[in-house]
Write a structure and sequence with these properties.
By secondary structure, this protein is α/β, with parallel strands linked by helices. The chain is 36% helix and 15% strand. It is built from 13 helices and eleven strands. Strands 1, 2, 3, 4, 5, 6, 7, 8, 9, 10 and 11 form an eleven-stranded mixed beta sheet that branches.
Length: 412
């Protein structure tokens, strides 16, 4: 009877079939114009605009993946890059799920590090998951979305919207992905355009997109977003962007400018994966929740690894430098929804120390003469992402002569 009742409920809003865009391998970007209407801009057009606006400035892209409670890794890594002095001003920052919450801080620069650090070292704890009890059976999620919404509302305030608008006006891009629940397709939102042209509604829409991108289906409620397009106003239902994209590069790698030769600045793409690239054998209890968690974990790590390999193939041969980082299997990672504050602080500190010491990145490169960054000393016994053999092995392509940069065997 409970199962039958749980299948009832109001219909969720969806876009008319004629308004659902056809999406290929390169995702269009939903951009808000000065007229207050959204339009879908192809990746190729975004790339041309970006190149024109940046002029002589180097093109640097940071992609932040999903990962639930492991978002502390991405936040700590960004702070560690600041402390090492190696953090550039990213031309484009993209985020999915937990990465979407980090993306605005990474986009706005080092002066916003203290607030980002506070979220993962002081704010996030088990209270983020507020059970709905009987509402979990009859409602749309196991947990209330209110604590997450309050957290986003507190930090994505008017000051942040203003700062993002200022940077968007300079030609930089802040992009976040959600999943359209009705179509099952990813939607890439240009948050900079929302901050710039959203008017009095900019804050609400900005925060709604962030909330939707981090709302894992079944765990948190889906988010209804009201948008205005050429065909008029409509309501759409959006959920976690990680359902369809573990991370994304925008503009698409095939649309990015190629390395032009001596004296030119190459495009640099960096990917921070808030999770492992492989699972390790472990026991699972014979109950539905344990089996579900294990299955989702295995599926996500596999999907992330596949997407990373595709990104490597797309950037290879175009003079585009690709660095990536992920959490090594050796790190005692808690569950994706284990928001224990001590575990959050530990993961944040670990990523920060590895980034500050120059042991974060694994680089896929085309020339063995390309040098790694300065090497620093890490605490004894610490296995950083750059020390993990499996993570590094993905960057090695025997037929293409690619090699791992900055690798050394992990300490026993």
């Amino acid at each position: 009877m409970l199962a039958a009742c749980a299948s009832l409920g109001p219909q969720l809003p969806m876009a008319p079939e004629d308004d659902v865009p056809s999406q290929g391998l390169s995702f269009p970007v939903r951009t808000l114009g000065p007229d207050g209407e959204f339009e879908l801009l192809p990746s190729s057009l975004i790339a041309r605009r970006l190149e024109a606006q940046l002029a002589d400035r180097p093109l640097s892209i940071l992609a932040l993946s999903g990962g639930g409670a492991s978002g502390a890794f991405g936040a700590g890594a960004v702070v560690g890059l600041t402390r090492s002095g190696s953090r550039p001003e990213f031309s484009v920052v993209t985020g999915v799920s937990a990465g979407a919450l980090i993306a605005p801080f990474a986009f706005l620069g080092p002066t916003w590090d203290p607030e980002m650090a506070a979220i993962y070292t002081e704010e996030i704890d088990a209270s983020l998951l507020q059970p709905r009890l009987i509402g979990a059976v009859f409602g749309s999620s196991m947990y209330s979305g209110t604590p997450l919404k309050k957290l986003i509302d507190r930090y994505a305030d008017d000051r942040m919207i203003e700062a993002v608008a200022t940077e968007a006006a300079r030609g930089r891009l802040l992009l976040v992905a959600t999943t359209d629940f009705a179509t099952g397709e990813p939607v890439v939102w240009d948050l900079g355009s929302i901050a710039l042209y959203g008017g009095h509604d900019a804050g609400r829409l900005f925060r709604s997109v962030l909330l939707a991108s981090a709302s894992v289906p079944g765990i948190f409620p889906p988010v209804i977003i009201r948008v205005r397009t050429e065909s008029g106003w409509r309501e759409e239902t959006h959920v976690d962007g990680g359902v369809t994209l573990p991370f994304f590069i925008a503009p698409a790698p095939e649309d990015l400018p190629q390395f032009a030769g001596a004296g030119a600045q190459p495009t640099v793409v960096r990917v921070i994966i808030d999770g492992r690239l492989r699972d390790f054998p472990r026991a699972a209890k014979a109950n539905a929740l344990s089996i579900f968690r294990r299955s989702v974990s295995a599926g996500l790590s596999r999907m992330t690894r596949t997407t990373l390999e595709q990104t490597m193939a797309a950037t290879r041969g175009r003079g585009i430098s690709l660095d990536y980082a992920a959490i090594p299997v050796a790190y005692p990672l808690p569950g994706a929804f284990d928001f224990d504050p001590e575990a959050q602080r530990a993961l944040f500190t670990y990523a920060s120390v590895c980034a500050e010491s120059g042991r974060l990145w694994t680089r896929v490169q085309q020339k063995s003469s390309d040098a790694a960054g300065e090497r620093r000393v890490v605490p004894a016994g610490t296995t950083c992402p750059a020390d993990d053999q499996f993570i590094g092995r993905l960057a090695v392509v025997p037929s293409g002569g690619l090699e791992r940069v900055g690798w050394s065997a992990p300490k026993p």
